[in-house]
Amino acid sequence: MLSNARHYLDVVVVLAQKDFKVRYRNSVLGFLWSLLNPLAYMVILTLVFSLLMRVNIPNFAAWVLIGLMIWRFFSIGTGQSLFSIIGNPSLVSKVYIPRYMIVLSNNIANFTGAALEFLVLVPLLVALGVNLTVYALFLVPILILEFLLVFGLSLSLSSLNLKYRDFYQLWDIALQLGFFLSPIVYDGNLIPERFRFVYSLNPVTSLIQSTRSIFLLHQLPSTFDIGVIVSSVVILLLVGFLIFGRLEKRFAEEL
Q: What total number of domains does the chain contain?
């Protein structure tokens, strides 16, 4: 039992390393694109919303950069996981490992990239005038919770995309909608009071607000936000394993 667990762990690590390297293969700037992309968005959004539309949010550049980084972790993680099963036919049909580990390794590769991006984010926030406090350490559990959230969703997405090959198109639309349903470029307090509770149940909203709390407000995330995130993680993991388990039996036939 212990030897099997160690073997599976080794397989996950090797697959995650492969996925991470493939993402930047044949790219001139490599990992730098992961930083230039959100920075370019930050500059554009700051110019449009802070200077032209005069949004009254203190240190808007840092505020929007935090939202973009949390969203980037979520959107890239779920988007790439759609093809984690389809892209590894030999692992599904010729090698025996628990197939959820293929999805897990893909998510670990994404988590590694996101963690490196956030390591660079911290000095960028300091350069933008953010004072770091001990509350910034809470970023670690926030990212772990986001990883679990993405993994739960990825189990459902990867298996559904194998069964319905155009499912990724639907998820792409969902991500575009999700960008505007999350407080990335606007303050969530702008949402009308009658819709605010439903709006607050979006776990990405709670992840963004929690990260802004520790960096910009110098305080722990609210109990409500943590409750929303943890509840969403539990629900999505349960639903993800349920859907994945039901569809897994036909993976080899669907490929």
A: 1
